[in-house]
Amino acid sequence: MATRRPIELTPEQLALSEARKAKKLKLSENPPAPEPATNLILSRPWISLNSDPEPGRIKVHTWNMLAQCLVRRELFPTSDCLKAGQRLPMLHAEILAQDSDILCLQEVDNLEKLLPPLQSKYTTHYTAGPGKKHGCMILFKKDDFEKQSERLVQYDQEEIRDEGSDASRRGLSFKTRNIASIVALKNLSKSGPEGVIVGTTHAFWHPKYTYERCRQVGIFKREVGKFATEHHLEHWPCRERLEASRVVHVSIDPTVPPTTSGPVGDDEDQAVDPDRVITNARRATPSDGLLTDDELVALFALGKPFKSAYDEGLAHLRTSASDIRTFGDRVSCEPDMKGSNEPEYTSFTFFWKTVLFVVHCSLFSTEQRSRDYIFVSQPTVITGLLAPHRAEHLGRGLPLKGICGSDHVSLSAELSFSNKGQASLD
């Protein structure tokens, strides 16, 4: 019986075979982003605020994902999806649902499992405070943007005065290891602004530490302006994302240093993580150099003003017929008060529902407000918003299967920049 000769491939066939192998290898290293599984989460309608076909719109998204390392059954007794395997598909579905151009995520951990389905579409920039097991991440479409520069702000190290002792220059009330992340993204498309400056932060969580949250957010606003100036990008529009973190349910006696109940684990880093437990707390003394009220106001006056995408967008929507409830409806504040048109809830759990004092950057105030914001530079036009969840859809508290995989509600806004982004931030 004659022996078969091996088939000899032509150079063209060999080249095609190699190309297929290379494509298969690339797909194995960077699998394509899965289609959003909308049945895993409760879908929300998109609100169009401007139907004109303006080119160069950018859709931004922000979300506190609830770090898995911070999940405790005693904090979320009514939740039915606290295990990592249950939450991960829901987290991916939420991130991909809006096909956003830029995303800011907080309380991000488990990167080795979170990132693979996202990396075919997005470039990621992850930062965390020293010793922290979770951090902040900025994602941007790799075909549309390119990172030009970056800045990490460590609040514990930032100074708020030029003179005095080390403590006085920092005006720090508590070492939190919280950070802010700022990036300059060059726009690779032919429409829209030349680029955008994106910043996100996760301010200190504890309800008794209003001062430290104010200090951190004031520094964040200041540093975004400094970043733009230092890199000669003052003409680029800015987008800030503020997240005042979550409130751990504890009983607090003003005379006793606050602490959490229940185990925090054997890991040494966890035992001293201020996201879990407050230790070595004491009352402030004059030598700590805390900012006075006037100094805090002056800190927030630095840099150019910003406006809230949801506060402005929902206020515009409510001039016509709208059944979307806002924060102002829940607490009965004046409709023209800054922050009154923020979503009714952006965090909704069994124990707490946005019961944290936060600074609303456009004026300096410490009223009780929604805790998640999208701030943008002026004169940015808000052309669309993702509708907030209705309270009646959130059951007895998030996270919940089929609703949301985090205790926070994500926010998304579509933005249009006048004069191709030559926006003065006045």
From TrEMBL:
Q: Which Pfam families does the UniProt entry name for this protein?
A: Exo_endo_phos
Give the SUPFAM superfamilies listed for this entry. Answer: DNase I-like
Instruction: List keywords of the entry alphabetically.
Output: Exonuclease, Hydrolase, Nuclease
Domain called Endonuclease/exonuclease/phosphatase: residue spans: 62-171
One GO BP on record is: nucleobase-containing compound metabolic process
* Highest taxon of the lineage: Eukaryota
Give the Gene3D superfamilies listed for this entry.
Endonuclease/exonuclease/phosphatase (3.60.10.10)
| GO function terms (MF aspect) | 3'-5'-RNA exonuclease activity
Task: Answer whether the UniProt record assigns the keyword Nuclease to this protein.
Answer: yes
User: Into which family does the record put it?
Assistant: Belongs to the CCR4/nocturin family.
Q: Could you tell me which PANTHER family the record lists for this protein?
A: CARBON CATABOLITE REPRESSOR PROTEIN 4, NOCTURNIN
Q: What is this protein called?
A: Endo/exonuclease/phosphatase domain-containing protein
Q: Which organism is this entry from?
A: Mycena chlorophos (Agaric fungus)
